[in-house]
């Protein structure tokens, strides 16, 4: 973040986090609170390290971290709100022009955000990776921004239950997407009329391989968004030592800051992360520079869904897309990319 970026953010949250001086002591300046929290989110350092850097008590820092996170999220909510009908149309046009995938309103994925087991929680947050976690479920648009997030589902739920236990599932079931539009996801999700996933297995026809490539090309937006999020905010590098309720606030703040930095021109472009690109001539994917960062141990993939049951209408919709991608919707390089 550039200096002007920090100043701009400070003006938006100053009144929320600045306390008044008393006769006994002076209040901690709002800029100091903001700097400490941004340093914590960016590095994931311990409270002891923050104590030495900012010359504040450990309990004091621990208390205002969540206060500042709440203020940041509330002030940036306009950058991470549920899309309106007009917004869905803009996103759909973006996927069609940039990723050659008509009718797509976003790419969906989820991550287990690793936490330290809360006291007396038993196995409530214990997941399949043998860690404790809460689930971050997100829909990402064509510009690598989060258009919908759901945080807080405990990591214990089964592979099929992770998606069904998120509020996003009910929103999709109730028709939050425009009629006839879809999201794209991987094999961690069930096949639905509003949610397309790849054809499973290795013995696929040419048409199925092309569909899987076209879908993975659009779905790469969410993979890159999560990658940049984890690379930029190293608080996800290891288990977050806070209660699940506080972790939810930290995660939401990081997502809001991610969107804000990508949608504004206040950030320092010299340090901006690049995304995956494609070399159509050689049929290869050029990795973004966020992949050069050390792998984050604080974010884990969702397990592959074992559910094979899907409605005939869901299967028909996937087949219709597969036919379209080898017909009028084909692109010149797709056969080269699948080989």
From TrEMBL:
It comes from the Eukaryota. It is found in: Nucleus. GO terms for cellular component: nucleus. Keywords: Hydrolase, Metal-binding, Nuclease, Nucleus. One of its GO terms (molecular function) is nuclease activity. Its main location: nucleus. Its cofactor is a divalent metal cation. Residues 108-259 form the DDE Tnp4 domain. Transmembrane segments: none annotated. InterPro entries: HARBI1-like, HARBI1_dom. Pfam families: DDE_Tnp_4. Belongs to the HARBI1 family. This is DDE Tnp4 domain-containing protein. It comes from Euphydryas editha (Edith's checkerspot).
């Amino acid at each position: 973040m550039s200096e002007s970026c920090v100043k701009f953010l400070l003006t938006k949250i100053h009144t929320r986090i600045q306390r008044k001086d008393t006769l006994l002591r002076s209040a901690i300046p709002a800029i100091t609170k903001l700097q400490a929290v941004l340093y914590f989110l960016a590095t994931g350092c311990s409270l002891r390290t923050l104590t030495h850097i900012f010359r504040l008590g450990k309990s004091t820092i621990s208390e205002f971290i969540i206060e500042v996170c709440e203020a940041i999220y509330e002030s940036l909510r306009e950058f991470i709100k549920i899309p309106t009908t007009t917004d869905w149309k803009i996103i759909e046009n973006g996927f069609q022009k940039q990723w050659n995938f008509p009718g797509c309103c976003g790419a969906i994925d989820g991550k287990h955000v690793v936490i330290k087991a809360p006291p007396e929680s038993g196995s409530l947050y214990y997941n399949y990776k043998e860690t404790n976690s809460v689930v971050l479920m997100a829909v990402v648009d064509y510009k690598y921004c989060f258009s919908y997030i759901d945080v807080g589902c405990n990591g214990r739920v089964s592979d099929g239950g992770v998606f069904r236990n998120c509020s996003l599932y009910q929103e999709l079931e109730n028709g939050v997407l425009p009629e006839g539009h879809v999201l794209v996801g991987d094999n961690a999700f069930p096949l639905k009329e509003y949610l397309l996933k790849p054809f499973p297995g290795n013995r696929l026809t040419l048409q199925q391989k092309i569909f899987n490539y076209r879908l993975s090309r659009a779905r790469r937006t969410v993979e890159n968004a999560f990658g940049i999020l984890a690379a930029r905010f190293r608080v996800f590098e290891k288990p977050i030592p806070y209660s699940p309720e506080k972790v939810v606030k930290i995660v939401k703040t990081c997502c809001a800051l991610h969107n804000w930095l990508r949608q504004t021109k206040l950030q320092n472009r010299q340090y901006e992360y690049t995304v995956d690109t494609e070399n159509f001539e050689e049929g290869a994917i050029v990795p973004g520079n966020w992949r050069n960062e050390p792998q984050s141990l604080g974010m884990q993939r969702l397990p592959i869904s074992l559910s094979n049951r899907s409605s005939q209408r869901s299967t028909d919709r996937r087949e219709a897309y597969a036919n379209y991608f080898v017909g009028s919707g084909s692109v010149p390089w797709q056969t080269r990319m699948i080989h």
